[in-house]
Write a structure and sequence with these properties.
Blueprint (H helix, E strand, L loop, with lengths): L2 H6 L6 E4 L5 H13 L3 E5 L14 H15 E2 L5 E7 L2 E8 L8 E2 L3 H4 L2 E4 L2 E4 L2 H11 L19 H7 L8 H6 L3 E4 L2 E4 L1 H7 L2 H7 L5 E6 L7 E7 L3 H16 E7 L2 E6 L3 H14 L9 E5 L3 E7 L8 H5 L8 H9 L9 H11 L6 E5 L2 E7 L10 H11 L9 H8 L3 H13 L3 E4 L9 E4 L3
Parallel strand pairs: 1-2, 11-15
Antiparallel strand pairs: 2-5, 3-6, 4-5, 7-8, 9-10, 11-12, 13-14, 15-16, 16-18, 17-18, 19-20
Helix pairs in contact: 8-13, 10-11, 11-13, 11-14, 16-17
Length: 456
């Protein structure tokens, strides 16, 4: 295990530092949250804020205590990988948790309703009932939008809308909708599924069953929501709400046209293809079991935010989705969207959005889990970061040279960049405050203290 590399990272969905085992409840909540989401690594003997490596005085005793706590207080049985690691003259404990196959895990004393925790960002949150139900469905290999609605009948599906949206299916009858899982057989009755009603349902039934399945759009004058200049509520079946939201973004993204010869080219301030990919992703992966939480599209002067209810599915991290790893939350909606041409290939939408931003000369989108919601932020031209000053650029270049992957000390940086040691210390302090660099070492007087440029 590469401890110096881990110390360069910040705490997040799959990483946490703990000084000791003095707060066992919080430790167990973290382990449960890791097991219920994407797994993770917990390192004991390191201060979580300063990342100062303090070590564990009696690691064998602490290892045994931890194993007993896990066995006695977590249900179902959780078997982590525990390792004692020597680092310089001290020892730390590393506990690695893998995404559990028996989700949801919970604290026995709180029970299976109040004792379930999940990881969002660098925090543990108590799971609500819809999220607990989703974990149980995943264990049964089911999705929410495949669930039948037995109190309705097939007349809740609007066959005229279905024919308009799916013209490539000339005989769009009840059997075809069963194939798409928009309808399901319950005893002797055909009923709509959740996905069928959201995609093709008639308005009264759809609005009554899912009043929050719509897209809220807003255009703001500035970098926050204090002044709104335009708004739109997109209601209807999901394909039409998606198109309405995209047209709202397109309207506000267009700049005056450029004429070259006989060709007119509309100019935009944001990469519209990236917006479309992330809008589709938000609709397909939204958690429609959550109440009071529509999909939101917010346009600011320096960015656009697309936010949907529902965190990443268990077993996935933000780095996973950026690499093209995908799990479908709503199989019915995903299947129909693929037939409509909104989805080209499973797991490719995030990567295409990243490429489109890169082609436009913009930073890649930022992805975040906030409470029980997922947000994608696309920068605009106004939000592009200014070019770094020459001193910062010299430091960045020196730290990113492959030969310096182990980091550089203050004096080594001063020598390699030609910057005085005093100026270097002042600049490094500013870069640390800005979160642009990381430092690995026991304390400021550690002769082996090294600086690293953050690349993620």
């Amino acid at each position: 295990m590469d401890i110096p590399t881990l110390l360069q990272k910040e705490e997040g969905k799959t990483l946490e530092f703990k000084r000791d085992l003095s707060s066992p409840d919080k430790v167990l909540q973290t382990l449960i949250a890791f097991a219920n989401t994407a797994g993770g690594l917990l390192l004991f003997g390191i201060e979580n804020r300063t990342k100062k490596v303090l070590g564990i005085t009696d690691p064998l005793r602490e290892e045994e205590r931890l194993a007993n706590l896990i066995a006695d207080r977590i249900e179902p049985r959780l078997v982590p990988s525990v390792e004692i690691i020597a680092w310089r003259s001290i020892q730390i404990i590393a506990i690695e948790i893998y995404p559990g196959a028996s989700r949801p895990y919970y604290l026995k004393n709180l029970g299976p309703v109040n004792g379930v925790f999940v990881r969002t960002g660098s925090t543990n949150r108590k799971a609500d009932q819809p999220l607990i139900q989703e974990m149980r469905r995943m264990a049964r290999n089911e999705t929410y939008d495949e669930s039948p609605l037995p109190h309705l009948n097939s007349e809740a599906i609007d066959f005229r809308v279905a024919s308009e949206l799916l013209p490539r299916r000339p005989r769009l009858n009840r059997a075809a909708l069963q194939t798409l899982r928009a309808l399901a057989q319950v005893e002797r009755k055909l009923v709509p599924t959740v996905g069928g009603l959201l995609l093709l349902g008639k308005e009264p039934e759809r609005e009554r069953e899912f009043p929050d399945a719509w897209i809220q759009c807003g255009r703001f004058d500035g970098p926050d929501k204090s002044v709104i200049v335009d708004r739109l509520e997109c209601h209807g079946v999901l394909p039409r709400t998606l198109e309405a939201a995209f047209e709202f973004v397109r309207k506000h993204a267009l700049h005056p046209a450029r004429i070259e010869g006989l060709k007119r080219e509309d100019l935009t301030s944001i990469p519209l293809r990236a917006v479309r990919e992330l809008l589709v992703n938000a609709v397909v992966h939204a958690d429609y079991a959550q109440q009071g939480a529509p999909i939101r599209v917010s346009l600011f002067t320096d960015r656009i935010e697309i936010e949907n209810p529902g965190v990443l599915l268990a077993g996935l991290s933000i780095e996973d989705i950026k690499q093209g790893v995908s799990k479908i939350r709503n199989r019915v909606i995903g299947r129909v969207f693929k037939e409509l041409g909104y989805i080209e290939q499973w797991g490719s939408g995030i990567q295409r959005a990243m490429r489109e931003c890169h082609k436009a000369g913009l930073p890649e989108p930022v992805f975040q889990e906030l409470a029980f919601r997922f947000r994608a932020t696309i920068p605009t031209e106004a939000g592009k970061p200014a070019r770094q000053d020459s001193m910062t650029e010299k430091i960045r270049t020196a730290l990113l040279i492959p030969a310096n992957a182990g980091g550089l000390s203050t004096q080594e940086l001063a020598t390699k960049t030609g910057i005085s040691a005093r100026s270097m210390r002042e600049r490094l302090a500013k870069l640390l405050d800005l979160g642009m660099i990381a430092v690995v070492g026991k304390n400021p007087r550690d002769p082996l203290r090294k600086y690293h440029w953050k690349t993620i």
